[in-house]
Amino acid sequence: MHMMAQPLKDQVAVVTGATGGIGHAVALALAGAGADLVVHTLRARQAAEKLVEDIRRAGSEATAITADLSVAAQRLSFVDQAWNWKSRVDVLVNVAGADVLTGDAAQWSFEKKLTVLWQVDVLATIELSRATGQKMKARGSGVIVNIGWDQAEQGMAGESGEMFAATKGAVMCFSRSLAQSLAPQVRVNCLAPGWIRTAWAEQASDYWQERAQRQALVGRWGTPEDIAKAVSFLASPAAEFINGQVIPFNGGFRYE
Fold first, then answer.
1. Rounded distance, CA 49 to CA 66, Å?
2. Of all residues in the chain, what percent are helix, strand and coil, respectively (each to 5)?
3. Beta 91-94 vs 62-66: how paired, if at all?
4. How far apart are alpha carbons 126 and 113 in whole angstroms?
5. Which residues pair with 147 in a beta bridge?
6. Which of 184, 195, 239, 242, by CA, is between 20 and 30 Å from 104?
7. What's the CATH fold of domain 7-246?
8. Domain residue limits, the chain
9. pTM for the complete prediction?
10. How far apart are CA 221 and CA 226, in angstroms?
11. What pLDDT was estimated at residue 4?
């Protein structure tokens, strides 16, 4: 019963963007499944240290690593630091993404937003996945979960739709190909969330609040905890026959 309750016991999981809403929930879920955690942050070191303490209190080991994933050298250094902590990584979850919708970034030009998204959401996901994936393959096992976007393939009008379709669409297509490269030792899947209650969602206008709930067949926003449960499943032995998939995760999309 204990092993069933903790399917990731004695495994090492890495979560990028672990101090954001989704990353934080994913890290806690993986720790709850028994994994030891490497939590990544860029600026929120204090929040990362608190997350480490929360994970330790729950019975798992944890460490925090600060890295700017928009910088190539720091991406490669992060891979080595994360791997060297326990001399292996069993699960890599690439959650880190640039926030270009809130704060000062919301006023940036389309070109600047796209550049930052490309560096963090695309290049970091690709390079971390390839570098860690090759180490996993050589070791004989591993799981990688990336984050896409459910509307990337059908498209959504507007600046945000154009940016996220380009960047998250790239992550989704890359994930399918990396699964081919790393099989059969390593499984690679991509979760493609729909409307999730993130920092942007908290301050979104009534139009977006209504649209998000209307377009989900279950009639509500998704939550970071919803994503965390799905990631935890994909990382577990229960999902050992799921590979190379982009999985829409949106409560059922209502086409209009």
1. 11
2. 50, 15, 30
3. unpaired
4. 19
5. 191
6. 195
7. Rossmann fold (3.40.50)
8. 7-246
9. 0.93
10. 10
11. 60
Residue 202 dihedral angles phi and psi, to the nearest 5°? -60, -30
Tens-digit pLDDT profile for residues 242-256: 999 999 999 898 887
- What confidence category does residue 19 fall into, taking pLDDT thresholds of 50, 70 and 90? very high
**DSSP code string of 110-129:** HHHHHHHHIIIIIIHHHHHH
Q: Quick one: tokens of 190?
A: 């991509």
Select the more confidently predicted residue: 21 or 212.
21
| Measured CA distances, 102 to 36, 65, 71, 176 (Å) | 32, 25, 22, 30
Q: Is 103 exposed, middle or buried (0-12, 13-18, 19+ CB in 10 A)?
A: exposed
Contact 248, 150 (CB under 8 A): yes
Asked whether residue 2 carries a pLDDT value surpassing 50, the answer given is: no
Given a cut of 70, whether residue 1 has pLDDT beyond it is no
3 state SS of 216: strand
Dist CA 84 CA 74 (whole Å): 15
Of residues 2 and 13, which shows the higher confidence score? 13
pLDDT score for 65: 98
pLDDT of amino acid 210: 85
pLDDT over threshold 60, residue 163 = yes
Say which residues have a Cβ less than 8 Å from residue 119's Cβ, sequence separation at least 6: 69, 70, 98
Residues 212/213/217/222 CA torsion (nearest 10 deg): 70
